[in-house]
Predict the 3D structure of the following.
Amino acid sequence: MIRAQVLICGGTGCTSSGSHKLMESFETNLKKYELDQEVKIVQTGCFGLCALGPVVIVYPDGTFYSRVTEGDVEEIVSEHLLKGRIVERLEYKDVTDDLKNKADVSLNDTKFYRSQMRIALRNCGVINPEDINEYIAMDGYAALGKVLTEMKPEDVIQTLLDAGLRGRGGAGFPTGMKWKLARTLVNDGGPKYVCCNADEGDPGAFMDRSVLEGDPHAVLEAMAIAGYAIGSNQGFIYVRAEYPIAVKRLQIAIGQAKELGLLGKNIFNTGFDFDIDIRLGAGAFVCGEETALMTSIEGNRGEPRPRPPFPAAKGLFMRPTILNNVETYANIPQIILKGAQWFASIGTEKSKGTKVFALGGKINNTGLVEVPMGTTLRQIVEDIGGGIPNGKKFKAAQTGGPSGGCIPAEHFDVQIDYDNLMAIGSMMGSGGLIVMDEDNCMVDIAKFFLEFTVDESCGKCTPCRIGTRRMLEMLTKITEGKATLEDLDKLEALCYYIKDNSLCGLGQTAPNPVLSTLRYFRKEYEAHVVEKRCPAGVCKALLNYVIDPLKCKGCTLCARNCPVGAITGTVRNPHTIDTTKCIKCGACMDNCKFGAISKK
Amino acid sequence: MKSLAELQAIKDKMKDKVVLREGSAQKRVVVGMATCGIAAGARPVLNAFVEGVSKEGLSGEVAVTQTGCIGICQYEPVVEVFEAGKEKVTYVKMTAEKAQRVITDHLKGGKVVTEYTIAAYAK
């Protein structure tokens, strides 16, 4: 009989910090202490707190161990699992003040989890994604059963419309509307297709990967529901080959679903057939755009094509097709089971439900969080994210990656939903949320995202191919202090031109990081242009390292560490830096023990 | 998969295995498993609780865990039952058979088995 379970995170984050070694070590130690018959090891998907990985949870106590190493395993087994004493030095206990004195802190008491609401991630970190039976135990495939036996396709679509579910890939198009169009526009008896966009390309976003790794069956179930709703018998998941764990778990999940007859012919004896195939993408950002994705599935070079015709009429193989994002699908079984009203009661007026954010950048709790729509940025960053390291000040957050924009400190209390973000010049995007503090230069950030889009532009249309390159050149000029104020105006005009004239979403949104930083941080741009100064001290060309003669003790450490011999001086006398030789590597500053060197 | 009943059967079969992770347990049965407890025979008691709770279908509401020595080694095996809002009940000198009665009378029936408690022995 199993009396305790050890859940070990097998997501990409924890795998790279060594969680598979922990599995082996737990197995050996449980055998050693003769507990292998009563304690079960379960490999799960992502728990969300990637910064503290590898993560291990012991049930029934719900004890949350963080940063577990192989050397800790024996202690957990011999102390906690054998004798029932919690290993407190490994326990994660970041709780709110009112729970400080509670003896046994469970996972849901921690600040990180307390304000979260998990719908799309509900099974991530709870079930073993490689065992379909565990998914079924958590109401899995019950929604598909309900849809096939009790509901008409029109009812399914109406439920989604009533729920107010909008696409989680970024644009926020109503999912029910998409399905309705695909069902009604063309009815010639020919094939229709259900596609899943798992080509998560935004730098810093990893929620789709985590859902696929932690709860792959939720996506399969939702795709089958979609197939029934629009009248399709074939689904395709387009996932990037750079997600090997996600691909492997999807393959296992599809195999198990077929074996149990939850995919394939005559599902639930209703005469409904549905199959799903995986297509691997090579990781081109443009293939996350719907028409480019479908072109790629067809076996062609991944390039977008003009719309209309829209995919709902002519999509994959020129047949009616719906394409939804992984996170969108993960919400659907729950909406079917709990009802449209339940879902519509969560969130704001026009954005219903929850949203998963991938927290990254200058934040303590790097990881995945799921919160109701309408949660403020402040709550996400300060309460759940644990604030900014080293007591630095919040400067801005970038949402939506290279297609989105920044939210400055003045909008820290804005309620995050599709429309509010749009109104302040950013966008939801897929949910990457990169936090920046006072040490980040906004021009440099804009340049970083532009470098990405220049690399990823497919080259089919001129505004995007050439326009983004020209923008990058202007930004480089600014960061090198060679630009004029006139260049700033030109840059802005070019942004609008590219937005208006590009063929697909990649080009249309590529200028967003520049436009939003120009809108909120124009002064910082002007400092680069007029004063030839980078206020955050990032842009190398505008920096000079100087030695404060009052603080310098003449220890010669800086001179010995300078790779280009730019520092001169005699022992016990203040040194000086020759700025014409200096390559601004910062080695002198890192090595100075007296804080005598600064950037200006 | 030919019917909803088939799906339900799998769900019922698996429920025991995942219910531990929901943290919904209202009652906690804690078995003393330090050296003194193990030497006095705590292991069969623990096993009896784990099996009995599952057999009676109480897995969702009762969590069985173990703890270290609480300092009354002469009374081992010691089993404590915690329930939210109620006073802790301490059973002493437990055996697998006694465990069975605690499961049916106390955990299921809600009636403390007074003659097994420390109060009855310490008199």
